[in-house]
Amino acid sequence: MRDDFPLGDTLRVVEPIYLDHAATTPVRPEVVEAMLPYWRQQAGNPSSVYGLGRAARRALDDARDLVAAVLHARPQELVFTSGGTEADNAAIKGVAFAARARGRGNHIITTQIEHHAVLHTCEWLEQFGFETTYLPVDHYGMVDPGAVEAAITDQTVLISVMCANNEVGTVQPIAEIGRIARARKVTFHTDAVQAGGALDMDVNRLGVDLLSLSAHKFYGPKGVGLLYVRSGARWQPQQQGGAQERNRRGGTENTAGVVGMAKALELAYANVDQNNAYVQGLRDRLIEGLLERIPESELTGHPVQRLPNSASFVFKYVEGESILLSLDVKEIFASSGSACTSGALEPSHVITALGYPPEVARGSLRLTTGLDNTPEQVERVLAELPPAIAALRAMSPAFATV
Ligand code: PLP
């Protein structure tokens, strides 16, 4: 564990290994430092007219300028939110209801592998007469831009395709879809929550009208994110209240959170190539080492077009939950797409959409590396995980019959 990223209890006998950076990341010390004043000495409300309030307003404005520069956006095109989920909700509902208000169409195009923040929002909109096309993806989790174009009808008001998938790391051809959306005059949103801090976030190069980000995925604080809304985009606010965020998101601003997010984003892009190379080196060693040591294993997601820190697998004849528990005992923290819902192990909608049968999809495991990981930690995972899987398989009736 690197000293500048302390995670876990230092009194443990075995050093904890955190390999779940797609779930969340520890906050960088510099980010904590930047945030601290806005909870104490500078704790004014940015809407207050006196000096303390004006200082908080200035901090928000500075943070907005910083973030806008990274996104190549205008500061007034940013709406700070409580995170990625709120940004996705605001993006999709905001475009849908703006279209409704103008008597436009009711059709949305998205993909089968989006995060639930997108999928459940689209499903929720059905009760208001909106219809959604959930595009399939190929075996690598890749969306076909041609299929996006083919799905557009004269009723289509929004295309929402994620930048990079949170379970398998596949990076989508966003710029290409952006060109199609623009040519067909359809508003285009991307959920860039997993890509933020690692991939190019230039909204013009990406060709997006709306983009969601969440600070806790790039070593910033939890509970703060943003929605980029291109000037002139057909969108309307979804949270009524005060006049904050230029009347687009009522509610006292999370000054410390926004300052932290801006600092984290600035630090991420100051060394983006170096950071990506570091986590990718660890990731590649994990992928190569695990596929070599574990029979009947497969990398899920695209082999090349994937997030630099994302390693995801299916292991036949085991369940992801059981792998997680075996790893947990060894203080190794990872993730599986499958979730225990009402007593049954549900395979992940993402792995299923990639074409894996449910019994294989249930054996999915995601390891996502981060700046706090070390090569020694990766070697320990390579030593611990294969025997753990072999032990689980030895108990599996399905494995006994092969
Ligand atoms: N979208 C994607 C792709 C994500 O991975 C996540 C979080 O895991 C979210 C949205 C939700 O973000 P938040 O946790 O900030 O609400």
Write the layout of secondary structure elements.
Elements lengths: L16 E2 L10 H7 L15 H21 L6 E4 L2 H18 L5 E5 L4 H10 L5 E5 L9 H7 L4 E5 L13 H10 L3 E5 L11 H4 L3 E5 L10 E5 L14 H4 L7 H16 L1 H22 L3 E3 L10 E6 L4 H10 L2 E2 L5 E3 L2 E3 L2 H5 L4 H4 L2 E5 L6 H20 L2 H4 L2
Parallel strand pairs: 1-11, 3-4, 3-5, 5-6, 6-7
Antiparallel strand pairs: 2-8, 7-8, 9-10, 10-14, 12-13
The site of pyridoxal-5'-phosphate has 13 residues, from helix 3.
Briefly say what this structure is:
The mean pLDDT is 95. The chain has 15 helices and 14 strands.
Question: How would you describe this structure to a colleague?
Answer:
- The structure is a single chain.
- By secondary structure, this protein is of the alpha/beta class.
- The longest helix is centred in the last third of the chain and has 22 residues, at 272-293.
- It folds into two domains: 2-19 and 271-400, Aspartate Aminotransferase, domain 1, CATH 3.90.1150; 29-270, Type I PLP-dependent aspartate aminotransferase-like (Major domain) (Aspartate Aminotransferase, domain 2, 3-Layer(aba) Sandwich), CATH 3.40.640.10.
- The two termini are 40 Å apart.
- The protein contains 15 helices and 14 strands.
- It has helices at residues 29-35, 51-71, 84-101, 116-125, 145-151, 174-183, 203-206, 244-247, 255-270, 272-293, 320-329, 349-353, 358-361, 375-394, 397-400, and strands spanning 17-18, 78-81, 107-111, 131-135, 156-160, 187-191, 210-214, 225-229, 297-299, 310-315, 332-333, 339-341, 344-346, 364-368.
- Pyridoxal-5'-phosphate (PLP) binds next to helix 3.
